[in-house]
Design brief:
about 230 residues, alpha/beta, 8 strands, binds the ligand O=c1ccn([C@@H]2O[C@H](COP(=O)(O)O)[C@@H](O)[C@H]2O)c(=O)[nH]1, TIM Barrel, single chain
């Protein structure tokens, strides 16, 4: 079990490639995130392999469907022993309540959180899909709904973490992708912060993928991030 806020995103197209990276990492220094590409290719085998190596895993499949379907998917994830799983908050209160109730009814301790607004989006993207509120307002609205629905936290950008800390409190998890150390490329992220800025802003967990996994020396990149946080 790790006390570190770092969650390394294993966005790889094969189980072998993901395990090659995992084998260089230490479960005492980080948790790992399995997302849509890797899970679609490898299925539950990747979870078994990472759990077998001692890692806690965030299964980032961002479920979004009718309440009964999402509750079943969240239960299935939790029964595979993942540390954290998520849904899209825009699936609504009934969907989130059904998922949270399913975990509670079955005594499953997996953390359940909800995505507010993807870190790859900015204000103009929300307008294009017909949302009239600005981005900060939409993140706050969905974070409040997530908390009212009984979930433990949200995925948001670190740029919203400080405000959500005042709105939802310290203990409400703020899991923030879009983390970019000064040495890393921005890629397709829009709302970014450095690791240190993100922690200062109130992030509880930092999701970092390409700045580590695509680095020429991933372990050196990870060590530089840890040094920045220290
Ligand atoms: O709003 C979100 C939600 C999830 N993600 C995921 O986090 C990682 C970020 O990877 P980087 O390589 O550090 O950009 C990736 O797996 C996304 O699917 C996100 O970026 N934003």
């Amino acid at each position: 079990m790790s006390e570190s806020p770092l969650i390394i995103a294993l966005d790889y197209p094969s189980l072998d490639a993901a395990l090659c990276m995992a084998d260089q990492l230490d479960p005492a220094r980080c948790r790992l995130k399995v997302g849509k590409e890797l899970y679609t290719r490898s299925g539950p085998a990747v979870l078994e392999a990472l759990h077998g190596r001692g890692f806690e895993v965030f299964l980032d499949l961002k479920f979004h469907d009718i309440p009964n379907t999402v509750a079943g998917a969240v239960q299935a994830a939790a029964e595979q022993g993942v540390w954290m799983v998520n849904v899209h908050a825009s699936g609504g209160r009934k969907m989130m309540e059904a998922a949270a109730e399913r975990l509670e009814k079955n005594g499953l301790a997996t953390h359940l959180i909800a995505v507010t607004v993807l870190t790859s989006l900015q204000d103009s993207d929300l307008q294009e899909v017909g949302l009239s509120d600005n981005l900060a307002g939409q993140v706050e609205r969905l974070a409040r709904l997530t908390q009212q629905s009984g979930l433990q936290g949200v995925v948001c950008s670190a740029q919203e973490a400080a405000h959500l800390k005042t709105v939802c409190g310290d203990r409400f998890l703020k899991v923030t992708p879009g983390i970019r150390p000064s040495f890393a490329a921005v890629n397709d992220q829009q709302r970014i912060m450095t690791p240190n800025e993100a922690m200062q802003a109130g992030s509880t967990h930092l999701v970092i993928g390409r700045p580590v996994t695509q680095a020429v020396d991933p372990m050196e990149a990870l060590a530089a991030i840890e040094a920045e946080l220290a």
